[in-house]
Amino acid sequence: MRPIIEFCASNMHHGTDKVMKALEQNPDFDVMEYGCLGNCGQCYMEPYALVNGEIIAAESADALHERILERIKEIEAMYELLGD
């Protein structure tokens, strides 16, 4: 299972560019950047990304990074439980 992590270019003012670059270092992740993900209200208010299509948001870029990694672990555990 390769998680797909999507970032909005318009959200980079929250520091998500650093999160994106850090996650790109992991060859097991598919990290993508788009001009717009269509969540403009959320994008304006806080750092966020999509993990397999699910919005993950946090109060800071560092917290977002941690939440993304936590969500990926949860997804991987679910896949293991279900037997891939």
Describe the structure in your own words:
It is a single chain. By secondary structure, the protein is an alpha+beta fold. It contains three helices and four strands; from the N terminus they run βαβαββα. Strands 2-1-3-4 form a four-stranded mixed sheet, with helices on one face. The model has no long low-confidence stretch (mean pLDDT 95).
The ordered string of helix (H) and strand (E) elements is EHEHEEH
Rg over CA atoms = 13 Å
Percent in strands:
15-25%
Structural class: alpha+beta
Largest sheet: 4 strands, mixed
The tally of beta strands, per DSSP, is 4
Q: Helical amount among residues, as a percent range?
A: 40-55%
Strand order of the largest sheet: 2-1-3-4
If helices are DSSP runs of H or I spanning 4 or more residues, what is the number of helices? 3
Estimate the global geometry from the Cα principal axes.
globular
Low-pLDDT segments: none
Q: Please report the distance between the alpha carbons of the first and last residues.
A: 8 Å
- What is the overall pLDDT average? 95
